Amino acid sequence: MKTARAPASESLSTRQLNRALLARQMLLERQKVTPLAAIERLVGMQAQVPRPPFGGLWTRLQRFEREDLVRLVRDKKVVRATAMRGTIHLLSASDYLMLRPALGQMLAAGANTIVGKRMTEAPATGELLAIARDFFGKTPAPFDDFRKVLQLKYPTHDVRALAYTVRMGLPLIMVPTDGTWGYPSNAGFALAEKWLGQKIPMDSPQLEKGVLRYLAAFGPASPADAQNWSGLRALREVFERLRPKLLTFRDERKRELFDLSDAPRPDGDTTAPVRFLPEYDNVLLGHADRTRIVSDENRKRLVTKNLIVIGSFLVDGFVAGAWKTEEKKKSATLVLTSFGKLSRETKAELE
């Protein structure tokens, strides 16, 4: 039996979608909330390298200090782990426990896509995960140490492929240190259940809850948008189950978008201040169609050949340029590169 679809009652312009996204991402005005609450509101922050989340919180929160986030990871209230899209994120511990079961199959499939051809005659995945569970369950250790164990046990196999299968398949947490940004480049890993002191219910994925959280942070959005953000597939069925609870809209290309009834959707003329975004900021990665915040032309300028998403800045809510730092022994300079002409007032606001 097919589900009856109510007609979308309203069309949303690109500027309206932009303002809705900025409001939910705390980029219209800095919020007076705790860093932990902000990370949960964002449903995690991309963290391939340790430093960007600090800039991401600074640009969104009032009176944020570096130590505020360092303290959270040391107290195990926030964790750094492989999550959405198979990339490393900072998440609250509770969100990690909620999301990891839903992401498990996607992470395993992603590992197979990347290294499957290098796993010919390799040991069974279950055997690898059992070895890793024992190794990382004893004491935190970097993956370099684990690869040495694999090399001794499987000297004729592609050890990096074996280790990558483990890294994607086994719930692991990166262990913080006393470093400036919380984690060294060779951070140790710990078994997630042991680090958090809680069992992860791998057989109970909370897909509906995950979709609702996504919409709260990135909506209005389509199933394709949610799939792009999470790395999951076949989310249309989840959206259809949630349809009675959601509002529907159309974008300028007549695509159906879903949203929470009580989520903010400011007018498209709402003032949007200049904002700086760190490398890899999820606001730029949360949709299949990202024109609500960056043009297709400028989107290409933000990603390097080795897939680094560089730091950028917003003008009137949209990506207008990139930034980088040039550091010397006694000074640091913030260098801005505009993607178009900026007014004198905008330059002053950026400065």
Query: Largest sheet, described in full?
Result: 4 strands, antiparallel
Going across the major beta sheet, what is the strand order?
A: 8-9-10-11
Topology pattern, helix = H, strand = E? HHEHHEEHHHHEEHHHHEEEHEEEH
State the helicity in percent bands. Answer: 25-40%
Number of strands: 11
Indicate the structural class. Answer: alpha+beta
C-alpha Rg (nearest Å): 21 Å
Regions with little confidence, pLDDT below 50 for 5+ residues:
1-8
Number of contiguous helices: 14
Give the end-to-end Cα distance, rounded to a whole number of Å: 59 Å
* Average pLDDT score: 93
Residue share in β-strands: 5-15%
Shape: globular
What's the short story on this structure?
With 351 residues, the chain is of the alpha+beta class. It is built from 14 helices and eleven strands.
Task: Provide an overview of this structure.
Mean pLDDT is 93; it is low at 1-8. It contains 14 helices and eleven strands. The termini are far apart. The chain has helices at 14-24, 35-41, 52-58, 66-74, 93-115, 125-138, 143-153, 159-169, 192-196, 207-218, 223-230, 236-242, 296-301, 344-350, and strands at residues 45-46, 78-82, 88-92, 172-175, 188-191, 247-250, 256-259, 275-277, 312-315, 318-327, 332-338. The chain is of the alpha+beta class. It is globular, with a radius of gyration of 21 Å. 38% of the residues are buried. β9 (312-315) and β10 (318-327) form a beta hairpin.
